[in-house]
């Protein structure tokens, strides 16, 4: 029986709830898309480097990365080659050839005017008897001893110097360095010669690349294996043996060559007799030439051991230069600079002019930058206490 006026059954569909669900889905999908966009730069590197990427095809990205690496390597290699070539080019301009004077060369100008050529009247560039490196723009040259111990007067009379631009100079002054096989010569009327700075041995590092270069223009790329001050445990402050060990034996390629760092500085000179000799040793003498007062190498007058070359448990002997005698010389030379300043055997020199004596700065290395007559401030330890002394080098 049908009942009239009975309310109809309520529908389960609610439009308000449906709208909320739709809005939530839209925001959810939008948030996910935004997360992918913003997180992708951070997640991709991790994914590319992850071991769990077997199903990912990254061939294109990997190829791009490989090409980028190869391109960068080429740039590095090309950059080094350019640096080496620049070093060779600039280094050659600072190397001077020394030749026996040719009396017939005085007539070469008149021959040129008459358009004649006599080979005997010219210098052949492969006939150099020695070579040197420019140390001042006004003509001072540090040269290997081409004179075979000839007197200075014979050098002035019998030799000339020639630059890479074929400028011929007479030699008008000679100064002995006091170091075997090396001397200074001055080129008459020279101006604006290209000067190279000398690199301190303390500023060199193992594995550093170097270029050996001679007067003939022959060059060889090598590197430093080790820097040694002396193989002897007890060292002489006035005759420190400083060598550089190269990766290759330059004696197989050169008898005489200058060694340049890749920034263009001069590191040393090499010959078969003496091996590599750091040229920084000559810098105090060069400064004397610039002052017009040729100076001599400095003498402290001690023998010593560098304590950092030994494994020592006693903290009192952990670093510094211990004044110590050997079988050939006393610890302190009587009447020498150290003796006059009051230094004694057993004293440990800690620093010289605020430069600490340690493994990187051996006492012999530090003293190389001083000339005779210079005064140095020495800090030393005696009986556990630190003391100071002013030492005038002889």
Structural summary, described in words:
By secondary structure, the protein is an alpha+beta fold. The chain has three domains: 92-187, Thrombin, subunit H (Beta Barrel), CATH 2.40.10; 201-291, Thrombin, subunit H (Beta Barrel); 303-392, Pdz3 Domain. The protein has helices at residues 15-49, 59-94, 108-113, 152-158, 283-291, 337-340, 363-367; strands at residues 95-100, 130-134, 140-144, 159-162, 168-176, 182-187, 209-213, 219-228, 235-236, 243-246, 256-261, 266-271, 275-278, 303-306, 321-323, 348-352, 355-356, 375-382, 385-392. Strands 9, 14, 15, 16, 17, 18 and 19 form a seven-stranded antiparallel sheet that branches. A six-stranded antiparallel beta barrel has the order 1-2-3-6-5-4.
Total beta strand runs: 19
Main beta-sheet strand count, sense and barrel state: 7 strands, antiparallel
Q: Helix/strand-derived class?
A: alpha+beta
**Second-tier CATH architecture of the largest domain:** Beta Barrel
What's the number of structural domains?
Answer: 3
- How many angstroms does the end-to-end distance come to? 138 Å
Q: How many helical stretches? A: 7
pLDDT < 50 runs, ≥5 residues: 1-13, 36-59, 62-75
Mean pLDDT: 78
Radius of gyration: 37 Å
> DSSP strand (E) fraction?
25-35%
CATH fold category name of the largest domain = Thrombin, subunit H
**Text of the CATH class of the largest domain:** Mainly Beta
Shape: globular
Helix content percent band: 25-40%
Q: N-to-C SSE series? A: HHEHEEHEEEEEEEEEEHEEHEEHEE
């Amino acid at each position: 029986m049908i009942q009239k006026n009975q309310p109809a059954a309520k529908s389960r569909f609610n439009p308000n709830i449906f709208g909320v669900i739709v809005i939530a889905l839209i925001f959810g999908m939008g948030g996910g898309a935004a997360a992918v966009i913003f997180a992708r730069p951070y997640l991709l590197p991790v994914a590319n480097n992850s071991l769990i990427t077997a199903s990912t095809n990254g061939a294109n990205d990997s190829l791009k990365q490989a090409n980028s690496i190869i391109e960068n390597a080429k740039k590095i290699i090309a950059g080094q080659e350019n640096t080496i070539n620049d070093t060779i080019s600039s280094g050659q301009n600072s190397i001077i050839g020394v030749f026996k004077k040719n009396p017939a060369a005085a007539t070469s100008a008149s021959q040129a005017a008459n358009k004649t050529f006599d080979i005997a009247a010219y210098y052949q560039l492969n006939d150099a008897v020695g070579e040197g490196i420019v140390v001042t723009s006004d003509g001072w040259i540090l040269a290997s001893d081409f004179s075979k111990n000839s007197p200075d007067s014979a050098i002035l009379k019998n030799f000339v110097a020639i630059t890479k631009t074929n400028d011929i100079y007479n030699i008008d002054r000679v100064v002995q360095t006091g170091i075997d096989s090396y001397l200074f010569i001055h080129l008459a009327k020279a101006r604006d010669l290209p000067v190279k700075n000398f690199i301190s041995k303390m500023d060199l590092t193992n594995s550093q690349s170097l270029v050996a270069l001679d007067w003939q223009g022959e060059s060889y790329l090598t590197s430093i294996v080790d820097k040694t001050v002396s193989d002897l445990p007890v060292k002489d402050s006035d005759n420190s043996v400083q060598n550089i060990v190269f990766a290759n034996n330059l004696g197989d390629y050169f008898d005489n060559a200058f060694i340049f760092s890749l920034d263009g500085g001069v590191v040393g000179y090499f010959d078969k007799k003496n091996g590599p000799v750091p040229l920084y040793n000559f810098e105090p003498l060069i400064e004397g030439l610039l002052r017009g007062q040729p100076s001599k190498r400095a003498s402290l007058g001690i023998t010593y051991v560098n304590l950092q070359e030994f494994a020592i448990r006693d903290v009192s002997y952990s670093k510094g230069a211990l004044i110590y005698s050997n079988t050939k010389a006393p610890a302190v030379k009587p009447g020498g600079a150290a003796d006059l300043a009051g230094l004694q055997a057993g004293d440990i020199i800690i620093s010289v002019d605020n430069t600490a004596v340690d493994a990187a700065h051996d006492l012999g290395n530090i003293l190389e930058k001083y000339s005779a007559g210079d005064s140095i401030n020495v800090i030393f330890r005696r009986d556990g206490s630190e003391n100071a002394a002013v030492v005038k080098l002889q």
